[in-house]
Amino acid sequence: MSARFFxxxxxxxxxxxxxxxxxxxxxxxxRAAVGxxxxxxxxxxxxxxxxxxxxxxxxxxxxxxxxxxxxRERAAPLTLAVALPKGDRQKVLVEKLTELGVSRLVPLLTExxxxxxxxxxxxxxxxxxxEASKQCGRNRLMEITQPLAWAExxxxxxxxxxxxxxxxxxxxxxxxxSVESIAAIGxxxxxxxSEVELAVKSGWQRVSLxxxxxxxxxxxxxxxxxxx
Length: 228
Ligand code: SAH
Description:
Bound molecules: S-adenosyl-L-homocysteine
Number of domains: 2
Strand content: 25-35%
CATH class of the largest domain: Alpha Beta
Shape: elongated
Radius of gyration: 20 Å
Oligomer: single chain
């Protein structure tokens, strides 16, 4: 796979100019030359072999040579609804869930959620999705929705499989592979009893991730991997 760059604007064959962080990466980190080949993607499911035709100070131009539909998505969509951890652990979460092919991340507001004042906001997280997609070869971006309150989300979320991760003693349940799924992970303080009860009443299934208590991002990564 040649070096991959993301375009905000939908790509078509022919000339295109890229600026912003992608141009910075190509010009100042990769130090690419005119004539070099690269791969572009715009998050809509294709990748585009291209050749650099001009290097500017803050932008560059290339010729898009072809459109190739290359699907590296899961067989069925997977949503992770997660009470986001803080700071750097949030970055790990977003990067790994992107690599694992999660379709959508819903930041959850729960009874025990802790507001993270250090968070750089959703836009920063969306930039991390692009960075991870460049690296792992995904041609569709993981969507990050606005934060949603658990009580609102739990009743309205629809999919053949909906699971809520909550430490329980028995852990023998089998999860069916390859169906559209939604999986919820609670905050460091855990989901409250009434939050778990609400989910179960709405038809969600409880899942355990083993006898140890995992941190939010570990639980999310483990569950996303289990649902592959
Ligand atoms: N303090 C809480 C644990 C919170 S861990 C308690 O003791 O119950 C943060 C979240 O990760 C949990 O809400 C749950 O969704 C998930 N999680 C962590 N470890 C888990 C496990 N062993 N099984 C199921 N879910 C787990």
